[in-house]
Amino acid sequence: SRSLSLAVIPGDGIGPEVVAQGLKVLTAVLPQDVKLETTEFDLGAGRWHRTGETLPDADLEALKGHDAILLGAIGDPSVPSGVLERGLLLKLRFAFDHYVNLRPSKLFPNTATPLAGRPEIDFVVVREGTEGPYTGNGGSLRTGTPAEVATEVSLNTAYGVERVVRDAYARADSRPRKKLTLVHKNNVLVYAGHLWKNIFDRVGREYPQVTTDYLHVDAATIFFVTQPDRFDVIVTDNLFGDILTDLAAAVTGGIGLAASANINPDRTFPSMFEPVHGSAPDIAGQGKADPTATVLSVALLLRHLGFDAEAARIEEAVAADLAGRDGTAASARTTDEIGDALAVRVAS
Amino acid sequence: SRSLSLAVIPGDGIGPEVVAQGLKVLTAVLPQDVKLETTEFDLGAGRWHRTGETLPDADLEALKGHDAILLGAIGDPSVPSGVLERGLLLKLRFAFDHYVNLRPSKLFPNTATPLAGRPEIDFVVVREGTEGPYTGNGGSLRTGTPAEVATEVSLNTAYGVERVVRDAYARADSRPRKKLTLVHKNNVLVYAGHLWKNIFDRVGREYPQVTTDYLHVDAATIFFVTQPDRFDVIVTDNLFGDILTDLAAAVTGGIGLAASANINPDRTFPSMFEPVHGSAPDIAGQGKADPTATVLSVALLLRHLGFDAEAARIEEAVAADLAGRDGTAASARTTDEIGDALAVRVAS
Ligand SMILES: CC(C)[C@H](C(=O)O)[C@@H](O)C(=O)O
Ligand SMILES: CC(C)[C@H](C(=O)O)[C@@H](O)C(=O)O
């Protein structure tokens, strides 16, 4: 019999609620012969308040032993901005070399979009996850004085760019439309921009069947709202990917539906799966959170581990559930009820 | 009699066409006793191809003698990415210390927006113009090899942040809603982010009547499409401002209507006014470009120089012209015809 050892980080706010539904659906969809073992990790605002720890070495070590990590949400207004983001979430992504931050965006029928005319939207953003402006490189001098200088350094390496660009080409090649768009700002950020563009062009010569395109990040935001159907696969840096995927979520039914995977394709470390949304402390504990983004993240997890049929069942269940909603249905059902409905669908 | 000495940089692509309309409307609206003197500067792709120059010292010196600069658009695919942007456009913004990059966004009645339900949109972005990731700081090592490392350094100073934050508070204070939103990413870019947030909070104590708000840039893009009416004045850094203002333009009738002002509030150097759109080489010379963004930039120019009534006349003329358009009218009229119509309106 097979086994799946899953590290679970419920985290803060609505994190525990949505993770519970993700696990419910995972349990319902897994083949009988797969033994699911979960280990919960107490990480986030609560732990930090109690112990001052964000992600101690012992936890990092223990996380390593798992096949994958499911994370709910991290962050609370009571913790100074940056402490948990840098000390926990980004630390995980960097320590486990999650260089492919995968964020699919699909406008399901019958879901709300702020865009008039309901364009077809079905693209995936491959966001670099271990470099760029996210490296924590920088500092401040004469902090808090009128003479303060603060820097942020975006670090980009051929090593880091090439591996994520290769991943993106492979993904584009596996999709029917075979189109890959690089998003950067190479007319201003010329050093990083040219590195990205040169590698993008060079690797592209190995994929003559993939249509390529380059857009500045500012122009890309325009197309996200005016012509989102022009996108198939997008590859971009850590910061641009952060911005674009929130916008993508907004135009495809909102952040309540946006799933993400932090993947280490080399499988040296466990990959991590999390909804794009945050901890939403204002609605925590009220059963109001939509667990769909977490459930879709579980589908990405299953696909990463080779359970393709199970991943597809979850995605079909979500599509069917969304098709049955009207504008108000999501709020009419509790977090638990949506999880139950999805669990029933994947099991049947 | 008064005089207005204007430096004109038509630039590339549709630049000359739209600038011609801007000047036409400017001439029509200026009081009789104001003598308008224009000096055209041959800068852009053509000049670079002929001489290899982007912005020589002599031109910079000559530009300094003017009350303001009107710029059409810069850029052509025949010029390597970054050459004209860094060597001309950004060089001007930096040399003339245009630290307030002002970009109003208003959804006029009857103009096309990709957003369903036509929300009320009337906000202005105060984008920092002389710091951040735009300083050209950075470099690349072992360029073009598999061992390449490329950096981009975002430089932020208390000096630079405080002056633009003060400008934004003053603008918010002068508007009916008196609301100011800071956009940054201070949970990741902690050094620059905390500098911005601390100064924003400190200066805010001098403006108790101004309501303040902070958003991460990724969340801000969501609100731009789901709740744009929550914004009044936004202050943000150079790169985030670049991204957000293209998105803002997209949701308020498109880049053909988005005006911008690169202001040196200290008036040590001439301020520069330009449409947000680029040179659009694909439609250049065909009379297809909408000159409205340039005409609205002329209104910002007039207001900067104290011609408030004339600025308002232009804005009313544009509103009236837009109200008379249907979805297809813009394309049915040539660049010249739209300019003529606006000139007639402001003169009457
Ligand atoms: C919470 C934050 C550090 C994170 C990021 O910026 O990557 C989030 O916005 C995301 O997109 O996963
Ligand atoms: C052309 C480019 C350098 C410029 C910028 O990034 O500032 C443009 O996008 C803008 O917004 O004015």
Automatic annotation (TrEMBL), chains A, B:
Q: Which GO MF terms does the UniProt record name?
A: 3-isopropylmalate dehydrogenase activity; magnesium ion binding; NAD binding
Q: In which pathway does it act?
A: Amino-acid biosynthesis; L-leucine biosynthesis; L-leucine from 3-methyl-2-oxobutanoate: step 3/4
Reaction equation(s) it catalyzes: (2R,3S)-3-isopropylmalate + NAD(+) = 4-methyl-2-oxopentanoate + CO2 + NADH
Positions with a binding annotation for substrate? 93, 103, 127, 218
* Organism domain of life: Bacteria
UniProt KW Metal-binding keyword: yes
Question: Belongs to which family?
Answer: Belongs to the isocitrate and isopropylmalate dehydrogenases family. LeuB type 2 subfamily.
Name of the protein in question: 3-isopropylmalate dehydrogenase
Output the lineage of the source organism: Bacteria, Bacillati, Actinomycetota, Actinomycetes, Kitasatosporales
